């Protein structure tokens, strides 16, 4: 506890020093920021409303729309590099949304260092995935619609990160939720896909309760939900309220980012086409929760208890996801567990406050590269294997699919954190920051790194090494270049993305400091020792996996496994818990209410109605006269009563 | 004298109803065309009137007052403010849409459609009168009178249990109306005591009524409005009426006509009995929250699509009532906006379900499955209506629901927190319905479901457009509503909670005081 409070003191002082960047009204090129959103939104409108006429060119329209947005993003980024360090925030008011009871919300955008990073990630990785999907969805008769949804997603996600008001952010927040719903359930004829889509949406809505209450609290405390007013006045609010807002926001973040206890939807979401898993459920949308926490730095800086909750959620999820990832034989689900776990890292870092915000974002970006890379790689494998996802039926694919293998390997080395691959730079810093804060956090993060190495090595070995376990007569084929080119680009980013980002931004911490503030802590041990320790843990994870899956032949049936493996296969009983605690009682409650409603509440009235049952048939006979006589009776009645009352009252 | 816009607004549909009824039997199409023309003409007049309020164009709309029964001080008094304007707008927009939606609904019974369409216009005229009237007696008479055409619309054209549903509808609402009658007379007598007997609402608002008396009168009004709205536990007529009435009729009933109840709450019950409203607010807030959760849970448990939508309406009416009685600017403006948006979204839902029923001949969820495959446009429109039903931003329903919740949070934190459960449950009942009917393998009997026809596209397009436009650009509408809500709340005189952490330039001491929870 003591250390938490000392951090707070540092946080507050550094915030004052670095976080005080004042956003100016956008002029020049920045006043065109809205185009970022407009391109993909227009693309979505054309594709979804254009009907069959756009079938033939749909994928091109979608890809161009997304790419234009990326070009715009690069232009803005270059322009921003030319500005002073703390003069990189621009606001753009588009129109006044509403003003009710004194609560005013502008549709306005905020382009600053933080949103810029996201814009590049979303449009860059997004465009690559559009290109990849041209090949992946080639034989799907609803490909145009698929690209329409993808464009809709990109537009909503950009709105989410560019909004300058929590309520506008919420529009993007729900928009990506909708896109996610539509894309998870893209193959609607499969009941499992439809169920998974609904589950994702409903679980996210639980998180949305947090979002709605967070904004409602802001209204109560600040009378506004715009970033500028909320952040500027945060220090006038009581710690109790700030903690409440922080916890509400955390609930929202848990839903969107599949963090404990709202993690259960993400594994099912793998029902969606693989490019969707790569873009939405790995690289971008699921990281929105991390964005939310980092964006709300001004609130969390002053609410240490809320930050502790963020760290705990992150630590639990990072271990949980890693453990689940170890036990899955479905390659996409193994990667999904990994995504949960990596986002857990980001959450943990974000919960550390100014010492960790920048690292959270850094890891978010590199993760976007290497996880999208690996998901698309998995998609490429599935493409060559008739949509098989069971790794027990893979094996030895490195020969048949050399490009996929090579690119996947880059992602693999990046995620387990081998220097100088991208993940090394970002994950190591989180582990350092965690140790600097607290031994327990540090050990969780370190342990996670070891488990990550284990399950990723397992995926690698089961898929690309060992004996061929596939049965199909045709050998698996490498994917067409429209799919492998994006893989190669992402593989390059997985290799140089970490060092590259540090170079481009002149150290990402400095880049983000005007938004998030920064703070440094002393490590409890020499840095070299910690780096060595981390690498040893990673190597240990690799070695154990090699011992279990590299040296021995992989069984095609599923071994019984120990209790932990069994639990991990069942997602650590997340679904079982939900079913026992929420669904079953909910169903019971609903059924009994329906029963009572039909027999109890309504019963009394039905009795009366039956008593006058004869009435209706009689009414039918004098239908024509009835209207008039009813009106007359009513009117006469009114007159009579009024007269009576007047007479009584008159002296 | 200026042109009597408001009287014209009411006279047009009334005239349309008469003309429709006069069309000779057997000329069904002509009758429908006459009715549709009447509805469109009313829409045009309504559009002119709203120009003046929404966009500040002076077209000469003024309050109207003509003597009616001078002995009682009753007059034909009409006026419009932001609240009534919003609802008049909803009514005039909804009527032609509903007319077009029910184009073929009279046919399975081989009944003459002209009566159905004439009754629709009659209900429109009465509903418009209720929204525009500034005379309590006039309001009361149309409040009761509209039961009659509705009774016949349900009872003559509905499903197999239509008589039962119609009688139940009538009994419930009549009972409420009679209680209200007593209260209306009570108010009148008070005005007599105070000097001159009148039913003119502004004069009645100015009366100084003792708090005890206010409570009784308030209850008299509220019971009638709570049955109409409907609020738990007075709601049980609605699911039956929604299920048995034809889809378009159900749409008009719960989308438009029932708003007279919530309109009565905010436009009559609050300003007439401010002290009582304040006293009873916590009780009503509780009932509203129960409605929200109860309606949603019951909706989840339904197997009949129209009953299901009926229960979602109960949940949504809970939000509206919650917003009104939380008595904050945000919540009351949100509630009024909610009345409009719930109208649009419920009409869309009922109408689309009506399209499905017209194809398959069943109201049961279980008879559908995989419809998106043969009829993707139908499924798309259904999903849009469902998303609007679950208040997805930026669809128009979102802003109203959010304003109600956040505005309520300022006064009743617990109630607001429980009400947010509604947003989870809404996702559940809407998307589960979509999942069961539209997704999965195509269920037997649905293979040849035809996709949307031209008339059906014409029905849903304006609804979708309005839901989007109000969602993206709600400001003109919210502004006029807010302008009208503010004086109402001033009347009730509840402290409007300001921000707890005021802007930095206030003294630190003050802000510390304010931030104590």
Account of the 3D structure:
The complex is a heterodimer of chains A (651) and B (517). In chain A, 73% of the residues lie in helices and 3% in strands. Chain A has 651 residues and is mainly α. In chain A, a hairpin with a 2-residue loop joins strand 2 (90-100) and strand 3 (103-111). Chain B has 517 residues and is an all-alpha fold. Helix content of chain B is 73%, strand content 2%. Mean pLDDT of chain B is 90; it is low at 505-517.
Question: What does this entry show, briefly?
Answer:
Chain A is mainly α and 651 residues long.
- Rounded mean pLDDT of chain A is 85
Question: How are the strands ordered across the major sheet of chain A?
Answer: 1-2-3
pLDDT < 50 runs, ≥5 residues of chain A: 1-18, 611-628
Report the count of strand segments of chain A: 3
Note the total helix count of chain A.
27
Task: Write the topology of this structure.
The complex is a heterodimer of chains A (651) and B (517).
Chain A: H1 2-18, E1 24-25, H2 35-49, H3 58-81, E2 90-100, E3 103-111, H4 113-136, H5 143-162, H6 166-184, H7 191-222, H8 227-233, H9 239-256, H10 264-268, H11 274-283, H12 288-295, H13 297-300, H14 304-327, H15 331-351, H16 357-384, H17 397-400, H18 402-416, H19 422-437, H20 439-464, H21 481-504, H22 508-516, H23 527-550, H24 563-569, H25 574-611, H26 613-621, H27 623-649
Parallel strand pairs in A: 1-2
Antiparallel strand pairs in A: 2-3
Helix pairs in contact in A: 2-3, 2-5, 3-4, 3-5, 4-5, 4-11, 4-16, 4-21, 5-6, 6-7, 6-11, 7-9, 9-12, 9-14, 11-16, 12-15, 14-15, 14-20, 14-24, 15-16, 15-19, 15-20, 16-18, 16-19, 16-21, 16-22, 18-19, 18-20, 18-21, 19-20, 19-21, 20-23
Chain B: H1 5-22, H2 28-54, E1 64-69, E2 74-78, H3 82-101, H4 113-132, H5 136-145, H6 147-157, H7 162-193, H8 201-206, H9 211-228, H10 237-244, H11 247-257, H12 259-272, H13 274-300, H14 305-326, H15 329-360, H16 376-389, H17 396-411, H18 413-419, H19 421-438, H20 454-472, H21 475-492, H22 508-515
Antiparallel strand pairs in B: 1-2
Helix pairs in contact in B: 1-2, 1-4, 2-3, 2-4, 3-4, 3-11, 3-15, 3-20, 3-21, 4-5, 4-6, 5-7, 6-7, 7-9, 7-10, 9-12, 9-13, 10-11, 10-14, 11-15, 12-15, 12-21, 13-14, 13-18, 13-19, 14-15, 14-17, 14-19, 15-16, 15-17, 15-20, 15-21, 16-19, 17-18, 17-20
